[in-house]
């Protein structure tokens, strides 16, 4: 039991994601963070690039072939008295929906920026999502061991491109081949590359040690370090926690340098599990009753365990193995007999889990994305979104005898969130919707590999769709009735209007009085 001097289990949790543009170094940083926690023995185990490395999330050939991380996975490790839950997000923008859902389950993020490139496109979009949810961000400027842009220039870029204040926490001592370490502006010490576990206290940028570290001259460097120390905005914890300010660290993930600073920053500054908004009230992390929501479903994660895992973010209370929770959507009891924690290469039964933890719950299709589990009152967590797809296709089956099997397989893929599935009201074959084309490749590959269903995709007469609703059920029914061949139902049975073009959608939106067309749907 927690008392005044023992921190509560929830307060020791740090649940975070790493966001970045592809190639900035997210995978490399993930590996190094896991090394700190002893979660993996050797660096280089997180992602296979061209088949050279192996990874837990790298379970699909398509990932290996393309060197991209398609699935979202979670890795738990302990360090410095804290339990870290690192949620991996797919780097490729075709899987953005998966990424957005994952960001609903974290309390903070690390943004990795390539020191030579600054803020790139995808980073900008991900930060927008973080901002919607006020997720605090720590910045890591990576690859300082290569020729990089001026640190002030980089911080300026972050401020302008992302409309967020910056505070340098460390300052790079040289860069490229001369990168010698970092000067910690807050604690007034330095760490040298290749000796990052050892700090040298200094009085300020004037210290003589900098002459040794920068043999080609220190005048410019001293000036910039002084400016960073005295001139930059001081770090403000509240401002960071509210998502208005990002502390900036410099380093090289590849050289395993600066990673220790990051992990210390997560411990010192990153928020413990936040309060979560549900339909009837806000749920605090230290409430006694267990609550949690499912943000991801994944099937066949591991060929040795042919199962389906729902990833549950615990929001409050304590989840114990064997407890009976309730699935609020159906009101039915849900025994949690084999909840699991995930590590880089492994999973393990979770005997107990607390707010902030992510547990995998094996099930046979009972759980869906957005589901709330609890042993307390009926509440439903909000904000796990589904986005209207940008491409719609019909699935063409090569073997017509397998139509029933295809229906079942598509239903599963839909429930997992691999694609969205729409069943047209006119009885024509199901339509799948995706945000990015790569999702179709994944669907095709998985149908072939897991269900022996070779398929192709046919274009479909529709290109956009919207969820529709109305305050007046009769108005809604009348609309559905009169638009029969353009109507479908999604997995939850919600009505969806499909249009051949954005133009015809707009036309319909303007004419349909009393009907709301939505491009985003909260699960439930
Ligand atoms: P991502 O997950 O964000 O896509 O990036 P990833 O970690 O895979 O890194 C992309 C490339 O950048 C990799 O090189 C990686 O070795 C390199 N890299 C990452 N961090 C650093 C760093 O701090 N310094 C330097 N110099 N390079 C870094 P690659 O050649 O594309 O892949 P690989 O063949 O090395 O795996």
TrEMBL record:
Q: Which residues form the signal peptide?
A: none
Localized where? Cytoplasm
Q: Which Pfam families does the record match to this protein?
A: EF-G_D2 (PF22042), GTP_EFTU (PF00009), RF3_C (PF16658)
Where is each Tr-type G domain found?
11-274
Against PROSITE patterns, the record matches this protein to: G_TR_1 (PS00301), G_TR_2 (PS51722)
This protein's UniProt keywords: Cytoplasm, GTP-binding, Nucleotide-binding, Protein biosynthesis
Gene Ontology BP term (one): regulation of translational termination
Q: Name one GO cellular component term.
A: cytosol
Q: What is its main location?
A: cytoplasm
| Task of the protein | Increases the formation of ribosomal termination complexes and stimulates activities of RF-1 and RF-2. It binds guanine nucleotides and has strong preference for UGA stop codons. It may interact directly with the ribosome. The stimulation of RF-1 and RF-2 is significantly reduced by GTP and GDP, but not by GMP.
NCBIfam families recorded for this chain? Answer: prfC, PRK00741.1, small_GTP
HAMAP family in UniProt: Rel_fac_3 (MF_00072)
Name of protein = Peptide chain release factor 3
Query: Which organism's genome codes for this protein?
Result: Phreatobacter oligotrophus
